[in-house]
């Protein structure tokens, strides 16, 4: 028969020893550091494939274009170092400034129009309960069509003897020279085609943002007496601001890169009225085979888009801080 003997605590008249607080703290600190290093390594491994892809297909081409813009580069392998001569020539070229003005005008028409149409479509789809998937698919169909096909179809619609001008003529408002009039009318017509084709993507992004908004906030606003307009301006739009910023940046970049519809519908005309920066780059690179000069145009376009994106980001962050 064994007898349980309680542990000796004060039998020898000494106090029991306490754990060494310094050593315990050091061990805890070491364990936390080990976990953080392990998490850092895991995080690097997760993002490494993306960094490699971006490096190969984004950063490396940008760096290559930057280097090429400082040379006279020909297809026959003739490479001559020019330094900043391509940029000096570019900023003195009146065709560059004309193309930049046409592009800026197009962006100023295209971006607000596509954001308004996409936001209206997203709000309407967010309220529709029945057949919402069908409506979503129908509105997204133009986005899936090719620019060439859309350009051919809309060239026929905008033609002087096309269905749109025929209808306008019957009510005494036509014919309207959509693709052969002044610069603003031509660029607005091209922007309308781009909005018709591209608003589906932004609409779905905004719709996802609307679906993600907490219903409790809208319910609280309704209980407090907010009407539909007040709820939209003071609840929906502020909560949607990050998504709106994303769409704004994407559509601005798309606007500055307009080429396909211009190539198919106007060929840069009439009288270079729709000669955008990308069309100018295309002419210099693939018609005149001056790749160094074309790369300089591309680098200027890259810097413009980067600056606009940083300004838009700063503007949205400033609004959020308030």
Supply the key terms.
mainly alpha, 322 residues, two-stranded antiparallel ribbon, 13 helices
Low-confidence stretches: none
Q: Strand-and-helix sequence, N→C?
A: HEEHHHHHHHHHHHH
Average residue pLDDT:
85
End-to-end Cα distance: 78 Å
Strand order of the largest sheet: 1-2
Question: What percentage of the residues does DSSP assign to strands (E)?
Answer: under 5%
Structural class: mainly alpha
Helix content: over 70%
Q: How many extended strands? A: 2
Write a brief structural summary:
This protein is mainly alpha-helical and 322 residues long. It has helices spanning 21-68, 85-91, 94-127, 132-144, 147-158, 163-170, 183-211, 215-223, 228-239, 241-256, 260-265, 277-287, 291-321, and strands spanning 71-73, 79-81.
Blueprint (SSEs and pairs):
Layout: H1 21-68, E1 71-73, E2 79-81, H2 85-91, H3 94-127, H4 132-144, H5 147-158, H6 163-170, H7 183-211, H8 215-223, H9 228-239, H10 241-256, H11 260-265, H12 277-287, H13 291-321
Antiparallel strand pairs: 1-2
Fold and architecture overview:
The chain has 322 residues and is mainly α. Helix content is 73%, strand content 2%. The chain contains 13 helices and two strands, in the order αββαααααααααααα. The chain has helices at residues 21-68, 85-91, 94-127, 132-144, 147-158, 163-170, 183-211, 215-223, 228-239, 241-256, 260-265, 277-287, 291-321, and strands at residues 71-73, 79-81. Strands 1-2 form a two-stranded antiparallel ribbon. A hairpin with a 5-residue loop joins strand 1 (71-73) and strand 2. Helix 4 (132-144) packs antiparallel against helix 7 and helix 10 (241-256) packs antiparallel against helix 13. It is flat, with a radius of gyration of 31 Å. The chain starts with 20 loop residues before the first helix and ends with a helix. The mean pLDDT is 85.
């Amino acid at each position: 028969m064994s007898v349980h003997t309680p542990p000796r605590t004060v039998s020898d008249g000494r106090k029991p020893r306490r754990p060494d607080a310094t050593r315990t703290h050091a061990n805890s600190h070491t364990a936390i550091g080990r976990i953080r290093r392990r998490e850092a390594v895991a995080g690097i491994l997760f993002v490494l494939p993306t960094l490699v892809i971006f490096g190969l297909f984004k950063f490396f081409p940008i760096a290559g274009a930057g280097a090429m813009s400082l040379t006279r580069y020909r297809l026959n392998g003739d490479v001559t170092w020019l330094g900043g001569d391509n940029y000096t020539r570019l900023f003195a070229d009146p065709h560059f400034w004309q193309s930049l003005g046409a592009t800026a005008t197009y962006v100023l028409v295209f971006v607000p129009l596509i954001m308004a149409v996409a936001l209206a479509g997203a709000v309407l789809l967010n309220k529709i309960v029945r057949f919402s998937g069908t409506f979503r698919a129908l509105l997204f169909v133009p986005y899936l069509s090719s620019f060439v096909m859309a350009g051919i179809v809309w060239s026929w619609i905008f033609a002087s003897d096309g269905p749109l001008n025929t209808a306008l003529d019957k009510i005494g408002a036509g014919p309207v020279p959509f693709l052969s009039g002044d610069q603003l009318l031509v660029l607005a017509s091209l922007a309308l085609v781009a909005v018709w084709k591209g608003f589906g993507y932004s609409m779905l992004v905004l719709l996802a943002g609307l679906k993600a908004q907490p219903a409790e906030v809208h319910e609280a606003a309704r209980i407090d007496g907010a009407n539909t307009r007040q709820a939209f301006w003071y609840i929906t739009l502020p909560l949607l601001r990050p998504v709106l910023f994303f769409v704004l940046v994407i559509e601005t970049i798309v606007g500055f890169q307009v080429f396909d519809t211009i190539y198919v519908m106007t060929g840069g005309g009439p009288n270079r009225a729709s000669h955008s920066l990308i069309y100018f780059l295309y002419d210099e690179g693939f018609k005149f085979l001056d790749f160094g000069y074309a790369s300089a145009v591309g680098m200027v376009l890259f810097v413009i888009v980067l600056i606009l994106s940083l300004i838009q980001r700063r503007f949205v962050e400033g609004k959020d801080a308030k």
